């Protein structure tokens, strides 16, 4: 029976993993391993304070079963405060478009049907490569001036990576430069950085950690509502500016229209909602993923050198522009990114509400139950990937370069899914990969990157956030 799934009490969970618990400073990976050790390959987190139960599994056969039975309208819960804001606090702002993060069922499918042809097409990359590269090159220029006398970056480099991701997202979904990379930031840029950071932090404490806001509206809940109101005004003004630009050029070819312009042709509210969703879903995830990749390359200089040799063929000069064409033949770069995301993914796994009653490991899981799949643990332990603690980009290659290296194909196909699976796979995965490819290319072509401070640590938030100061050592590449 469902009730017999191993389950910690709320007190027991907080005693182990809460802010003052035994493992309060542990990494998300260590916490996941400890939970598996304590409760086995399946466990149930009982719903508290109005939140529904969560079942967590560490079995790849379960992952496949959940994904294969999710139905035509996959459900994924866990952002209740976000849903409350759009459905109850400010429904007049969204007018039927709750967005991909908040909607479920037919309403989600309606939004996804609008967005898929716009954001999932390979040709969308062609429109943005030069713009994303421009932001990356500006960021590299800033990084150059951040280094101290030991060639190390400042402790708050994570904040600057978040700003790079935010500035890039402004280009991708708002058709504008937000100005958050400028040394002399405008008051508006400073406010935008603060609001996006506050929103993600509040989401974590309200929806991921145990919170009473569903029963009693807490100070954190009211703060989030105010934060989202302010973000609505700021993003809305950027949408209005885009509308004015479109009106000045009404006959533009559909091939040259941006993501935002194409969405605006469908509906302004759809465009606004998707832009807001992209800021929430695409900033912290991209910067977190980039940190893990850079850390792996910094600790594996021979892999970094091999990548740099590939980059030299594409970028004979450090300032050679990156284009859609010259980025086509970069297999080792993509292998480096895949391997970095295997070892340090932005999240610990995927989650889905089961589409029908299922039996998992002998337990009956009722339809609609949220199942979280602990993929991070399996990605970094024996049993799926040979030599899992080693950074081996070659495992993702085929042909002579992969000779003598274990293949990623050894793993169960549902273990490694950094962008999810099926109809609800990440809508921005092509854009996210492009962002990381361009940033890593620029940094590795420009610098020898080293890490001198032991293992990097990440804590759990909406995405995995580094708690280690990111004092990467960057020394100039001489050619």
Automatic annotation (TrEMBL):
Q: Which GO terms describe its molecular function?
A: heme binding; iron ion binding; monooxygenase activity; oxidoreductase activity, acting on paired donors, with incorporation or reduction of molecular oxygen
Q: Does the keyword Metal-binding apply?
A: yes
Q: Which UniProt keywords apply?
A: Heme, Iron, Metal-binding, Monooxygenase, Oxidoreductase
CDD domains reported in the protein's UniProt record: CYP24A1-like
- State its cofactor: heme
Residues involved in heme binding: 426
State the family named in the UniProt similarity comment for this chain.
Belongs to the cytochrome P450 family.
The protein depicted here goes by the name Putative cytochrome
Organism, scientific name: Anopheles marajoara
Lineage, opening ranks: Eukaryota, Metazoa, Ecdysozoa, Arthropoda, Hexapoda
